[in-house]
Amino acid sequence: MALETQPELQIKFARRDRALLLVLANLVLTGLLIGHLLTSSGGYRFELDQVGFEAASFLSVFVMFVAATLIKVSLAERRAVLLGLFALQTGNLLDAATGIFFNASPVWWWIGDGLTFTGEVILALVVFQFVRLTNDLANRDPLTGLYNRSYHMRALANLLKTRNNDKESVAVIAIDIDHFKHVNDVHGHAFGDLALQAIASAVNGFQGEVKVISRTGGEEFEVVVDQLDEPAAFALADRIRLVIASIDLGENRQLTASLGIALSHVGEALVSLRQRADAAAYKAKNTGRNRVCVAD
């Protein structure tokens, strides 16, 4: 089993030679554009009050471009950032150029506005993607990729509130891996991590049938499902149990799990519901393990 790589936020310096090449390419393209404008317009004038804002915008975006060549942020698409900044920089340059090269074609002004708009859209999309990924990262368990305890509690609380208003129940399935401490002691924590990943992957196969699947503790998982009665919730939990027991960890090594089910009562608090599910899982452990028990 290979350890799955989970996305993580990393900020590090890029290679200086590549950063230098990108900055030089920027300067060359900018210089060629300015040269073309100068030769095609036949003259220029520089009045700070007319082009000062656009010129300052051009310089500030160029500085941001240089910074973007030097720094790599793992969850941000670097090529899109550089492309967006270059488009924005060029757009600002052309907006300023229409006030400097007085005989330049007005088409350049339209091109400048188009590039400015394009750059802003690209950067907005990069920011949106970055926020989405960081938000998802904050809600995930870094080892298994399942939702973490913090997200789980919020999602369960919201679902309970909704179903309580509808006078419907929510089922919590607590999953506790059997003898997991022994697995870590005998095979090592690295193998234990791989086993947790395999179990998470197997349980995640039920995501189309449930509301939330989370890792809530070391070897503890929870599944939340609604609109199921007790027999249907039991059947689902038993299928999860069988899937876990069928995982091949190599060298004829397998794990089992004890599962507890609790269906919410009308108006029941989150803490009470989870405690009853945990108690049912402990009952499953104390009565032989590798089984499903339903809370009272």
Q: Helices, strands, pairings?
A:
Layout: E1 11-13, H1 16-41, H2 48-70, E2 71-73, H3 78-100, H4 107-138, H5 149-165, E3 170-177, H6 180-187, H7 189-203, E4 212-215, E5 220-226, H8 230-245, E6 257-263, H9 270-286, E7 292-294
Parallel strand pairs: 6-7
Antiparallel strand pairs: 1-2, 3-5, 3-6, 4-5
Helix pairs in contact: 1-2, 1-3, 2-3, 3-4, 6-7
Spell out the key features of this protein:
9 helices, single chain, 12% strand, alpha+beta, 296 residues, five-stranded mixed β-sheet, 7 strands, two-stranded antiparallel sheet
Order of helices and strands: EHHEHHHEHHEEHEHE
Give me the secondary-structure category: alpha+beta
Task: State the separation between the terminal residues, measured CA to CA.
Answer: 39 Å
> Approximately what portion of the residues adopt beta-strand conformation?
5-15%
Q: How would you name the oligomeric state of the polypeptide chains in this document?
A: single chain
What is the average per-residue confidence, as pLDDT, rounded to a whole number?
A: 88
Largest sheet: 5 strands, mixed
Radius of gyration: 29 Å
Query: Largest beta sheet: what is the strand line-up?
Result: 4-5-3-6-7
Task: Give the helix level as a range of percent.
Answer: 55-70%
The tally of beta strands, per DSSP, is 7
Estimate the global geometry from the Cα principal axes.
elongated
List low-pLDDT spans.
Answer: none
| Number of helices, counting only DSSP H or I runs of 4 residues or more | 9
